[in-house]
Amino acid sequence: MTRLSRRHTLLAGLTLAAGAACAPKPVLADPAEPVPPIQVRIEAVQRRHNAKIGVYAVDLSSGRSITYLDGESFAMCSTFKGYASARVLQMSEHGELTLDQEVFVDPGAIVANSPRTAPRAGGDMTLGELCQAALQVSDNTAGNLLLQIIGGLCGR
């Protein structure tokens, strides 16, 4: 059995939700069998892929929307790297840190797709270099280090 990555599971869930939100009402072979609500369908996908899916979809024509776990935080694959980098830059502007501040790159913290941080494992990188690595090549370890610097996904 092939395991799907978080990105593929997220895309599958978003595709399911968007399709359900925008698709015309299905014609049922047996009108006595109702179409399961979108929440039931999303829960089935979550169970099938052992994943957590959050959805917020809007049909721009009708204004109808569908939400599921919309009050929870999700990293949303690599998009968090831009927000984490922006927070580091904001903190730098406010004098809370400097972009030349060095951060130790722990060899044990290196994860897949870390083309800039992996060669520097065991040494230091500046916050500026970590932001650059996260934004330019989507370096995962750089993204994780930035999250630690800003205090997590909520930037606390």
- Give the strand tally: 4
Helix share, percent: 40-55%
Query: Can you write the helix and strand succession as a string?
Result: HHEEHEEHH
Largest sheet: 2 strands, antiparallel
Count of DSSP-assigned helices: 5
Q: What is the percentage of strand-forming residues?
A: 5-15%
Strand order of the largest sheet: 1-2
Radius of gyration over C-alpha positions, nearest whole angstrom: 20 Å
- End-to-end Cα distance, whole Å, is 39 Å
Oligomer: single chain
Task: Outline the low-pLDDT stretches.
Answer: 20-29
Mean pLDDT: 83
User: What is the overall shape?
Assistant: elongated
Structural classification: mainly alpha
3D architecture notes:
The protein is built from five helices and four strands; from the N terminus they run H-H-E-E-H-E-E-H-H. It has helices at residues 6-22, 38-49, 80-93, 127-137, 140-150, and strands at residues 55-58, 65-68, 102-104, 124-126. The strands form two sheets. A two-stranded antiparallel ribbon has the order 1-2. A two-stranded antiparallel sheet has the order 3-4. Helix 3 runs antiparallel to helix 4 and helix 4 packs across helix 5. The longest helix has 17 residues, at 6-22.
Outline the secondary-structure elements:
Elements: H1 6-22, H2 38-49, E1 55-58, E2 65-68, H3 80-93, E3 102-104, E4 124-126, H4 127-137, H5 140-150
Antiparallel strand pairs: 1-2, 3-4
Helix pairs in contact: 1-2, 3-4, 3-5, 4-5
